[in-house]
Structure formats: C-alpha cells, structure tokens
Amino acid sequence: MDSHLWLNRGGIQAILNSALVSYERLPMLEVVFDRLVRQMSTSLRNFTSDNVEVSLDDILSQRFGDYLNSIPLPAMINIFKAEEWDDNGLLVVDSSMIYSIVDVLLGGRRGTAAMRVEGRPYTVIEQTLVESLIHVVLADLSAAFDPLSPVTFRFERLEVNPRFATISIPSNACIVARLRIDMEDRGGRLEILIPFSTLEPIRELLLQGFMGEKFGRDSIWETHLSEEMWLTTVELEAELETQNLSLNRVLNLEVGSQLLLQAKPDSQVLLRCGDQAMFTGRMGRKGNNLAIRVDHKERKKES
Hints:
This protein is an alpha+beta fold. The chain has helices spanning about 1-20, 25-50, 65-70, 95-105, 125-145, 195-200, 205, 220-230, 245-250; strands at about 55-65, 75-80, 85-95, 155-160, 175-185, 185-195, 235-240, 270-275, 275-285, 290-295.
C-alpha cells in the first residue's frame, strides 16, 4: 500500500515538474549569463579595487515557491524591475558575500576573513554598501542583455524576509543563475532569479542559437526573405516625354484635345518604378508587343 502511494506521488510530481521549461531550451540565455560573468569580473574589480573572480556555478529551472523556501537566511533579497518588459526579478546576496563586500569597501586587510556576527539585523551601512553592489550588478546584467534586446534593470527595494519578496505566484517557473564571487580569501554567492513570465517578451530571441558575432541573428530567415524578395513582382512605367503645361491649359483639356509630343521612334525612354528612375532605353517591337531595350541603368540621386 505504501509503495503504491509512493508511486502515485512520484507520478504526480513528474507531471508537475514536466511543466518546467528547461533553460537548455533557451540557448541564448546561457550566452547572456556568460557575458554577465565577464563584465562583472571587470566592473567588480573597479568597484572594490581588489582582485575579483566571478564564476557561473549553475543555471537551473525552479518553481518560484520552492526557490523562496530554499533561500539560506540571513540574506538580502533585492527586487528589481525590467523596465521595458514591465516585470520583476530577484537578486539574492548571501551573508558571506554581504560581510565580504562590507569588509573590502571599508578597508579590511587582505588575508583576514571577514568578521561575521550572525543573528542580528543588517545595519544601514551594510545595506547601503550592498545596494551599491546591486546597482553595479544590474548595470552589467542590462549590458549583457543589450545585444539581444535592450532592457533597463532598475533596483526597487531590499528585503530580508522572503515573504515580502513575492513577485510571482509560487507555482510559476523561473530561471535561477548562481554566481560565485571570490576576492582572494573572501567572497560569497549571488543568485539572480528571473521568472519565465518576465522573459516572455524576448522568448523568440532566446530560442535562437549562438551565431558567432551575430549574437542571435537568424541567417535561415534572412536567406528565405532575400529569396522571396527576388520573386516579388514590381510595376515599371515607361515615360516617353515630360511636358510643362499651364494650369489653365490643363483645365481646358477635353475629349478630342491633342498634345503634340516631341518624342521620335529613336528617342530615349525612361523606365520608372514609382518615383525612382531605374533605366533608360529605346522603344521597339517584339512580336505583337511593344518593347523597350534597356541601354543603361540610371544612377540613384543622393538626397
């Protein structure tokens, strides 16, 4: 009986988990976080004036509720907003990283571990210093997404209680990127959580594969579009002659009026496509049809 219930629970759990979208189905997302790691390594060295190494530990898909319950406390949970996508994400800084960044920015000596006092709330100074770090990370995250889709990540507020950092319903799927930051013998972890609903506006871009320096351009679609354009039908107009007439004469034209043309059988004929002059040639006949033999191509006038 117990094994039967266990199998049923396992089957239900498998069905629920199957709804999670694996980040591996979004190839460009891994490229974005790789760019973020490179940019953070440089910007954090400038920010701390220390030797900083940033590494990407893992990218995974997780339910939002499960993630909130797994956050190791104490921690600082920072809510940020993606302006262009009109949705939110989380950036979580663990306690080791908090004490390390405070120690580095306040001039702690190298070779000594950051002092930690567990079980007390974070001070205003600690929160302010960590908030400065968050602004640097969010600027790098915006730059990492920029070649794919320009977006501005804006810091909104800082929370220490996960219940106050609810930006999505618990069952929603999210992408979680875990970053490791090492500053010689100090360091800690940063975790970036972005719900799939936040990424929905650029989902089609994230589905593309990495195309070298093109960064997401779809060459297959470009080839198909160019092939279809060559098959497009355009209308050409043959202009035998242009005359300037007074408005009074034009208004007096009626059925039977005659306009005398100066064009001769061997005169140049201008071929236009809309307002653009394309070719000049001479008029003739081919079978039962009037024809124009193209002599040369008109140069496009610089605007």
